[in-house]
Each structure stands twice: as structure tokens, then as C-alpha cells.
Amino acid sequence: MKLEKKYPSEVYLNGKWLKPDEAYVSVFDRAFMFGDGVYEVTPFYKGKAFKLKEHLKRLQYSLDQIQVTFDAFSLENLMYEALDRLNLNETDAAVYIQVSRGAAARSHFIPEKIETSILLYAFPVALEGFENKTWEVMATEDKRWHRCDIKSTALLANVMANEEAIAAGFAENLLVRKGYFTEGSHSSLFFVKYGVLHTHPEGPEILSGVTRAEVINICADLNIKVVEKAVHIDELVEVDEIFVTGTTTQIIPISSITHKNKKVYTARKDSITRKLQKVFIERTRK
Ligand code: PDD
């Protein structure tokens, strides 16, 4: 079932707080025309940011990679203002930031004189109760570009992969490149094999998930070994647990994977996933 989403009552657009029906960008905005923009989603647990610096650092990385000159850290106060304006300090929420290269007459080259366009808003999000969920997912070929480390607004391949899963009754689509799992359409991916966590190494094939990094930190503290190595679809027979992570996903165990209409994985255990969820809740709620 698809959850109906509402527009936030107010958004920040290029220096002004506006009602959604007043917030417009040019038809020549390059994020609209080319997907020439980057974004970030930062969680706030009852008004308290989690890993704010890491999210802004990743936004800065994306901006630097696409050569947009803008200081991501200059947005910090606006993020808190967005929460205040929507009265989201007592509830769980997230802040969406989108930086577009800006508007200019259409050209494949990057125009010299162009003003960056900033959209920012807060929205409520359910960050509680994920420990009661398990997801049945599907797996399909990863058809995205080779710069998934850039958090680009050009998410058509992700949207299509996710839609394929939802239409077939699955919660997420795990993406496979040359036989190896990369990540989910909107989540990072972990496998537990012989008690050791496996996850795709950072690089152009995945987004460097902030939640993923925190799971790796937790593992170091719990003495759980992590190997940043991709898992092949044929290795699933050796896998006991799989879980996905993300800012809005949190940590959710995968109960089964269907690939080409065949169930290729059924969870055997969940003890390591449960341990990580418990510590993650402690850290995000402290
Ligand atoms: N997406 N990989 C992809 C492709 C993602 O889109 C996301 C999150 C993640 C998890 O990253 P993080 O732990 O930093 O949220 C991994 C966000 C939430 C979104 O697009 O809305």
C-alpha cells in the first residue's frame, strides 16, 4: 500500500519561507531540466539532530563533485528553523535539502554565471517501531549510473527500481551489478555470513550511507567484524541475516529475497541485526 504524503506547510526557497503553492522555480532550473542538483535528508529525533555534521559533509562532497560552489554548513541554522516553523521539535522529523545548480538557458555545458538555488524543508517521519518490521524484498539489476556516491536528485533509476518492487508487493528492491549486490533503491545493505558483516565497499557504486557508517561504528564497539566486500548473489546460501539501513529506514531485517520470480534467500537468523538495532536505538535516542 502506498502511504499518502502531504506537502509541508512551509518551505525555504532561495531566502524566503513560502507556502508550497507559492514556492516556484524557473522552468529553466537545471535540477528540473537535467537533474543537475544534489540533496540530503537529515533525521531529527524529537528535535535532536543525529549525525548532522556527517550529513552536511556528504552534501558538501556531492556539491564539490558536481562543481557547485556552495557552503553546505551554512544551512545548519535554517535546518533548525525549519523544524521550529513546522512545530516538529517534539516529534520525529527529517529535513530535506536540495541544491540545484540554478536556472540558465539550456546547454550541456555548465553556464558561467549561474545562481545556486536552495530548497529546504522539514517533514514528520516515523523513526520509531522499525524493530517490529521485517521486509520481503526483490532483487534486480542495478541500472543506475556509475556515480552513486553523489547524492544526485536524478533518481529515476532508483524510482523505477522501487516502483517495480512496490508493484510486485515487495518493500524494497536490492540492486545487483555484475552478480554482486550494491545497495537498495533507497537503502544501504548488509549481510551476515559466518558471524561477519559484509557490505559493499564505498566508491562510485553506492551512496556512502550515514546510517551505514554508524552501523560499522557500532560493530567496532561490539567486536563484530565488518568486511567491506560485495556479496555475490550465489553466496546467499552462506548468508544467515540480511538487513537494510537508512535515515528513514533505520535498520530493518530482510526476511526473504525474490529474484527473477524465484525465492533465492530466506532469513535463518536475526540475532546480530537485533543487537545492532538495540544499540542504534540507544544512540539515536540518548
Ligand atoms: N536515501 N542508498 C541510497 C540509494 C539511498 O537513497 C539512501 C537513503 C541510503 C541510506 O543513506 P543514509 O543512511 O545516509 O540515509 C543508501 C534517502 C533517505 C532518500 O533518498 O530519501
UniProtKB/TrEMBL annotation:
What family classification does the UniProt entry report for this protein? Belongs to the class-IV pyridoxal-phosphate-dependent aminotransferase family.
**Residues that span the membrane, as ranges:** none
Superkingdom classification of source: Bacteria
Q: Name one GO molecular function term.
A: transaminase activity
List keywords of the entry alphabetically: Aminotransferase, Pyridoxal phosphate, Transferase
- Give GO cellular component annotations, separated by semicolons: cytosol
Q: What is this protein called?
A: Aminotransferase IV
Cofactor(s), by name: pyridoxal 5'-phosphate
Which Pfam families does the record cross-reference, listed alphabetically?
Aminotran_4
- Which biological process terms from the Gene Ontology are attached to this UniProt entry? amino acid biosynthetic process; carboxylic acid biosynthetic process
